[in-house]
Amino acid sequence: MSTSDLRKLCELAKEGDEQAIRQIIAKFEPLIYKNSYINGEIDPDCIQELMIKLYNCVKKFEFKTKEEIEKYLDID
C-alpha cells in the first residue's frame, strides 16, 4: 500500500467510512498479532486493545506536507 493510498484511506476513515477502516486494520493486522503475544500465546484482549488504539489513532492522525515536515525539522 502506497503512502498516498494510506492517506486516502485515513481521510475516508476519518469521515466514517467503515470499509476504509477495515482496510487499514487489515494492513496492520500482522503487526497487531505480532505484538499480542503474552506468555507465548496470543491474547485476544490485547488484539482488541491494539485494534481500538489503531482505530483511535487513524481518527486523529493528520498527514503533513513535505514542506511542513521540513519546516518542523528545520531542513533547507
Automatic annotation (TrEMBL):
Species this chain originates from: Alkalibaculum bacchi
GO molecular function: DNA-binding transcription factor activity
TM regions (residue ranges): none
Coiled coil feature spans: none
Name of the molecule in the record: Helix-turn-helix protein
Signal peptide range in chain numbering: none
One GO BP annotation of this record: DNA-templated transcription initiation
Gene3D superfamilies: 1.10.1740.10
Pfam family, one: HTH_16
